[in-house]
Design goal:
- The protein has 138 residues and is of the alpha+beta class.
- The chain contains four helices and five strands.
- It starts with 5 loop residues before the first strand and ends in a 5-residue tail after the last strand.
- Bound molecules: adenosine-5'-diphosphate and magnesium ion (MG).
- Residues 47, 51-52, 55-56, 80, 82-85, 91, 96-99, 101-106, 126 line the site of adenosine-5'-diphosphate.
- Adenosine-5'-diphosphate binds at residues 47, 51-52, 55-56, 80, 82-85, 91, 96-99, 101-106, 126.
Length: 138
């Protein structure tokens, strides 16, 4: 792989959720993540795309190779213009769900990834940004 890669995946159907998993599996293994991290990344992407589909109907996944200082990694944004999250603090707690779900999605994503940021408002929708850093082999 040469240069810094990036891409965008539209989410509107269940098939797009499957496609997003497939693409992010290829992207992350192509970047050199090990199987455990690849699995963490696609599990996180799965949860975020399911939330887009369930709560906003449509949205997108944007990904890019990302550098900060010495660190190189994969940055993924899950974006939608849906109803927004009423309380981000609540939504980040295990067991909180407005849909009768398990409420383990967002707290799970936080555990699986190295960085996570949630921005949301009723007028602008929701943006969840996650990062996984590549580990140096020493
Ligand atoms: N993209 C989104 N748009 C609006 N609300 C969301 C979105 N993602 C999550 N939420 C809210 O945050 C809650 C917690 O999400 P999550 O942890 O994935 O649990 P679950 O999906 O099982 O309810 C959801 O019940 C919903 O109220
Ligand atoms: Mg969920």
């Amino acid at each position: 792989m040469s240069g810094m890669q990036c891409g965008e995946i539209a989410i509107a159907t269940e098939g797009d959720i499957v496609m997003a998993r497939k693409i992010m599996r290829e992207v992350s293994s192509g970047m050199g993540f090990g199987l455990t991290d690849v699995t963490r990344i696609i599990t996180a992407v799965s949860e975020l795309t399911r939330n887009i589909y369930k709560y906003a109907g449509v949205g997108s996944i944007r990904w890019q190779e990302y550098c900060s200082g010495e660190k190189r990694g994969l940055r993924i944004e899950a974006l939608d213009r849906g109803p927004g999250i009423a309380s981000i603090d609540q939504a980040m707690k295990e067991g909180y769900s407005t849909s009768g779900g398990l409420g383990m999605g967002l707290p799970g994503v936080r555990r699986l990834m190295d960085e996570m940021e949630v921005a949301s408002s009723p007028s602008e929708g929701t943006a969840v940004t996650i990062i996984k850093w590549l580990r140096h082999l020493s």
